[in-house]
Every structure is written in C-alpha cells, then in structure tokens.
Amino acid sequence: VFLLFFTTHEELQTLDVDDAFFSTPEDIAARALKPQGGVNFIRTFKKQVEDQAINLPPNLDELVQNATYVQSPDNLVWQYFYNLKGSAEYPFPGGIFQWARYRRNGTGLNETEKIFSESLNKHENTLTLATLRIFSNRLGQPHFHFNANEMGYVISGCGQVGVILSSGVTANFNIGIGDVIFFPVGTQHYIQSVCEEDLFLILAYSTGNQLETLRMNDYFHGTADHILAQLFFKEQAEFKKFPKAAK
C-alpha cells in the first residue's frame, strides 16, 4: 500500500504504457519496437476493458515467471530514495517530526541524506515530506509556512484542527484515520491530539527549498514588549509571564 502525493492543483493527467501502445498505429509500433513477426505480432495485443494500471490480470501468476530488479549504484539510488522511518527524530513539546527535505548547506544530514536533499532542490516542482506524531492530548502549536502549501493524511489516532483565517475567524474540525487536510501557503493552523492514542500523520509540503515556518511562540516573542502592550492594552511587564521556548 502506497500513499502518493502529486505536485499539481490541476486534474492529474497520466499516460500509462498500455495506453500509449494502443494509441500508436500498428505499423509505427512495429517499426519502432521491431518484434519478431513484425506488425502481425503487434496485432496479437488486445486492449483490455479495465485500466491495467489499477486492475491486475487474474492470471498474473501464469503471465509472469520471473520478476527481478537489479539494485542501482548507491550514488544513483539516494537521489530517489530516503529512509524516512530510519531518519533522525526532531522532538518538539508535544510530539516528534521526521523529515525528508532539503536543508541549506546540508545542515544535520548524513551523506546519503545530502544526496537526496540536493536532488529535491534541483527540481522546480517537488515535495518535502514529513511524519508528525502528536502525543495523546498534546498540541502542535499554531504556525504557518511562508513558502509551501501543506497537505496531510491521518495514519492513526484522532485530533482536532484549527485554521485561523486573516479575517480573524477560526474554523475548527475533527480528523480521524484516512482523513486528508490541506492548508494553503500562509494559512495559520494548529493540530491537537484529542484521544488516548497518539495522532500520527504523513505531511507533504509543496516546496523543494528549505521549508520556512513561523510559529506562534516565535512571532509573539519576536515582537517587542512595548508593542504588545499597545496591541493588547496590558502593562508591558505582563508579557514577561510568557516563557521563551528552549532552542
């Protein structure tokens, strides 16, 4: 079972091998592929009623006798493959992140991770992937991303999401296993676990650059106390009561 993300907001357009084959005139296919029997052999192929990209033939064991793949050299493999489950964990108060992403200067990445990271950054339309685990009844604090849309899929657990709109309105909704969530770039949002089981999601971000994120505690503490005092009509000293998060 695979969970797939595609970098398009249009209707996904896909051309399978069999569709391309049957869309090619018989004589052209015969001249291109040069099979034994020529065009007569090409004519023995019959287009199936069902899409073979989705529906495997019921007699697959009879058709395929040997399916093997030769492992590519490592320096090629790591451009396309990343062991996310085995990668470094990045804890935060309330949970854990794991990333398959681009990092500027390869900061904190091992050699194979650097190859994957650089490969992501070479492509204009690509994805950063992550897993997010929020511990039982804990919170992923309000934040937004400057340079990416975010989409997520719930693997396990249950939670509540809040989307804070520019109008000051907050939309809240519950999420559970199999649900998909989407946050457009610049949309402040938060996620919290609301049941005994940890909430676990796979997240995709529409950027091949280093993800730029601003969290509520960062921009709150980044605002001078005297500015906060004017905004909230509270004494400047009151804002010393908000503890700064440890780096």
List keywords for this structure.
247 residues; alpha+beta; Jelly Rolls; 6-stranded antiparallel β-sheet; 5-stranded antiparallel β-sheet; 21% helix; elongated
Describe this structure as you would to a colleague:
This protein is α+β, with helices and mostly antiparallel strands. It has a domain of 141 residues: Jelly Rolls, CATH 2.60.120.10. It is built from 8 helices and 11 strands. The chain has a 6-stranded antiparallel β-sheet with strand order 1-2-3-10-5-8. It has a 5-stranded antiparallel β-sheet with strand order 7-6-9-4-11. β1 and β2 form a beta hairpin. The longest helix is centred in the middle third of the chain and has 12 residues. The radius of gyration is 25 Å and the shape is elongated. 15% of the residues are buried.
Name the average pLDDT.
91
CATH architecture of the domain at 71-211: Sandwich
Largest sheet: 6 strands, antiparallel
| Beta strands, count | 11
- The name CATH uses for the topology of the domain at 71-211 is Jelly Rolls
The gyration radius over C-alpha positions equals 25 Å
| Distance between the amino and carboxyl termini | 37 Å
**Uncertain stretches:** none
CATH superfamily of the domain at 71-211: Jelly Rolls
Structural class: alpha+beta
Order of helices and strands: HHHHHEEHEEEEEEEEEHH
Strand order of the largest sheet: 1-2-3-10-5-8
Helical amount among residues, as a percent range?
Answer: 10-25%
Structural shape: elongated
Number of helices: 8
